[in-house]
Design a protein that fits this description.
three-stranded parallel sheet; 15 helices; 11 strands
Length: about 375
Amino acid sequence: MIWLKKIIAILAVSFIAMSSNLNAADILDEIPADIRDYVYDPNFMDPNQPLGESVYRNWKSERPKPWTIGYASSYAGNLWRKGVMERLYGDYLPKMKEAGYLEDIVVTQSNLKDAVQIQQMRQLTDQGVDALIVCCSNPVALNPTIDYAYSQGVPTASMTGYLTSDYAISTSVNYALAGYYIAQWLAESIGGEGNVVIIEGIPGASASDSQHQGMLDGFAQYPDINIVAEIAGMWTPQVAQAELQKWLSANTIEVDGFAVQSSGESGALNALESSGREMVPMALGGEIGSFCYWRNNPDFIDRAIYAWPPGDDAEFAMNVLLRTMEGQGLKIESVLVPPYEEDVETIQSFVPEDCDRNSSEFRNIGIENWASDEYLNNFFDRGAALL
């Protein structure tokens, strides 16, 4: 991570962005300087990321514990979503039930249809859930429903991507920073020149769009890097594999590296390998199937870059939501964390030599490494661990 901070500091002098939030500077002054200057650096921030004072700063849920949370999921068709559900139901709900915080987590799926997700969120609110959580959604489309939920005493938290309603709580990595980091890492890995393919996530979702723009901005710092294709992998290995296979079959141009938004890298890796082309550097972000290849080909790349370990990201969002409901005084609209990296020696410590290239598992680095209680305390006036 020291390497990331150093390269970001060097490149920041030539990259300019502006935050659109009028009171962001005042609120950010209340965040410790080391976090503010790194994770909230305006040079590496989506200009639409909400950074104003949270409406929940002096708010506390009037509803008694244990609470029921409605999880209005937008999609269920990839390994990452599977990892979220495993953490929520396999670990988080049981321990929070025992501690008296939660009664249940009720899940709906909208299959990437905004209108369906809006309807499900309103139904969950009217059915009496105490809070809502959403994932990877359109940053604008849900706003009227979020506002309605707030009018009913129901807060909404977004994990993995921001929402632009004043009544939303956004939690995630800084995706613009993560995308920039992935791009400059890949550019440096291939010697600062060559042809690259970008495989983005779900266009229109803020997490995908912010990360994608970060990659574009990062590659723009290297005049000898050419982006030869931008492919929507839909954060799904099967889609990423099929779309990249089609492109590789239709184009004979040499590719020197692949900037892939996880989840999707295992599919992209399979497409590259089956094409018979040289196995050039590719960004990996947590899928165990892709780590299996790297584990047994340790010179493939020098690090994995995590933008959203699924279980940790879900627990991060839930912890921020429950702290807010307790009245801990959430200071800012978006609670952001930095990207995280691991080297091949670390990967080899948990991926066995006889690993499965088709594994459906996803790497979690641990909530203490992603969004620890100590870290979250910086974003609350009266921050305190839930457990």
